[in-house]
Amino acid sequence: MSGPKIIFFILAAAILVFSVMSIFSRRILRAAIYLLFVLVSMAGLYYMMNFQFLAAVQLILYAGGIVVLIIFSILLTSQINSTLDPPRKSHLLLGAVTSVLGLILGATTILKYSFQASASAPIGTDMRTIGRHLLGTGAEGYALPFEVITVLLLAALVGSILIARKPKV
Predict the structure, then answer these.
(1) Bridge partners of 83?
(2) Which end of the chain has fewer CB atoms at under 10 Å, N or C?
(3) Any idea what the Cα angle at residue 101 is, between residues 7 and 12, rounded to 5°?
(4) How far apart, in whole angstroms, are the C-alpha atoms of residue 59 and residue 68?
(5) 3-state DSSP call for residue 83?
(6) DSSP code of 27?
(7) Domain residue spans in the chain?
(8) CATH 3.40.720.10 fits domain 3-107+124-164
(9) Contact 18, 38 (CB under 8 A)
(10) The whole model's pTM is what?
């Protein structure tokens, strides 16, 4: 087995293990740290597929942005040692059914789609072209996705504060 295959399997195993640990951890801070490990491992997979820009965005935006906001909100609200209530059996069953249905939907969609090579020329990688695409609002622009990401960051911050706040006694 070659080196890249070994690294791929290590990253894939890390994603699976830390995803499960993030879901089933009853400590809020540990779940956030496990989520950080998942996101960093995903960035490693993107880097292996030669998507360096996407890997950088994954590290900066998700691992460096959302998870840090979640951790700061947990630490600022003094909820570092709090534990979550155990999930009800109905929630676990509903989550399992949703996961299986999502897996079936994803697998059938991928298997039915006929992947074909693109005939268009690759986009240049000089700084001017990248900047034009990042600021563009047309079909090849990224201004709208960045605006959506800012709303996602705000929602993550508000959600993490709501999760981590002290209950009224």
Answers:
(1) 27
(2) C
(3) 5
(4) 11
(5) strand
(6) B
(7) 3-107+124-164
(8) no
(9) yes
(10) 0.63
